[in-house]
Amino acid sequence: MNLTRKIQQGIRENLTLEDLLPTRMPVYVNSVAYLFGVAALSGLVVLVLTGVIMAIFGPTWYHNSSTGRFVNSIHFWGVQLLFFSLVAHILTKIFMSAWRDGRWKTWFIGTITFVIAALAALTGFLAQTNWDSQWIAVQAKDLMNAVGLGVLFNPMNIGQVLSIHLIVLPLLIAALVGIHLIMVRREGPVKPIPRQGASDE
Amino acid sequence: MNKRTSAYLRDIPSKPYDLIREGLIVFGVILLIAIVLAAIFGSPDYPTVRSEDVARSAPIALLKTSADILAGKSSLQDYGPPYSADPQNAQKLLGVAPANWFGVTNPIDPAEDLILKPLERAAVLDADIQSALTQYRAASKTQRQQWLTAYSAALDQAQVSNGEVQLPDGQYGPVEVMMQGMLNLGKAGLLEGAIDSGPGLPYLLDTTRSLLFFQDDVDHGVAQKLDMLGEQWGMSHETGLYPGGWWLWPFVFLYQIPAIANSPNADLLAAAIMAIAYLGLVFLPFIPVLRDVPSRIGVHKLIWRDWYSRSDSSPSVDAKDEDGVRLRP
Q1: What are the structural domain ranges in chain A?
Q2: Contacts with B, A 44-103, CB within 8 Å
Q3: CA B253 – CA B230 distance, rounded (Å)
Q4: Is A27 close to B228, i.e. CB distance below 8 A?
């Protein structure tokens, strides 16, 4: 079996250039509800850009320099916008029963991504290295220990917090968002719910 | 377009669309909003609570914290895994205690790690502390507790004068010198370093022990003043009026229910309820009745109102595209 040929064939059959970068959309795609997903993605890009800048200059920079504080503030509000968009995205997809017609896998990946994003936000609050971080760390450790995750993640260990926030979770989120987007583009937007209601998946 | 999607959308008219343009516009708007909010409101950066601040502004609190830890009265004492071998204290639900699954992976002896070891470092600089430590370690457990009990009781009557703590006379043995040593370490800003100091120096990347030092009364006192306790919905907002993890509201709400908040297994109970709710969300497409609720609510009629009005005007939806092009491969 030629694996390269198999992958070529898989891409050709499932993800054409028009799937990946569409120039046409079904006419029912005509609502602000469709913008929350791209808004969440935009929030993520803002976080990556500001996060990379803060990672380059280091934690003391975003406390002691006015530029650092400003970039940190954009990052902070980027998180708020990301979660506002994500929650709106999830709610609208629920109202649209967007898991219909075989799209449950896309829904599944999306819900996992939401939890990973919440963990990334937690490690972000811990990485602020201020009073909020200090308090959240000693509070969160009880939850982590209670559910048996204390062995994997210690919110009071700033070295571990930073490496997880800067590398592990962003890579995981990038991978999950990538899979989610490929699925969305491959399957196309789900059709409107028929007038009599919907129950099939 | 791939064959499957093409077949799926066979009878659906299409319209021109520019994915990149839409993405860039939305990104620009989100970036602009983030910049404007950052410029107007900034972000929370309330300073950390340091031993130096506590030693100067509330020296009795630092002494009480140290004495409690040394006497084994802190919440860290007998905490259970991952810090101590006390599995009976791990949170349990239906007899299951996940905290015990991996055992003691981060052993912490509160008296030794948070008080005696830092004092041994200070003893290099202060012979009185060295003598006090020698006397303390040589004493019986009962004798130590008598000194500590007397000292803790005396702290309740202690006065602060010119930054110095004045204690009534009493039988404190070496404890008074030891506690003064802790206070001086704090005043010098060396307490956290003395606690966390270890073989990894000069790199201090693990702040676990120094963060645990003030986790009881001092941290709770500060958190209460800043409305950040659990019963104050503390997990879901930051200091001041800044929003925090508001998406945790359903989780934080559980801590407002007395039966959960007052349970010794509160965290595990809340986590279990959230896990069940989350699994319900993940598997919503497969749960009969529940999966049909969204379509009965009717918000989709608003989202697709153009499509439904189009269907109303043309019962068999016209397969012709808005510009005459069909969604075909």
Answers
A1: 33-96, 99-189
A2: 45-46, 63, 69-70, 72-78, 80-81, 83, 85-87, 92, 94-97, 99-101
A3: 9
A4: no
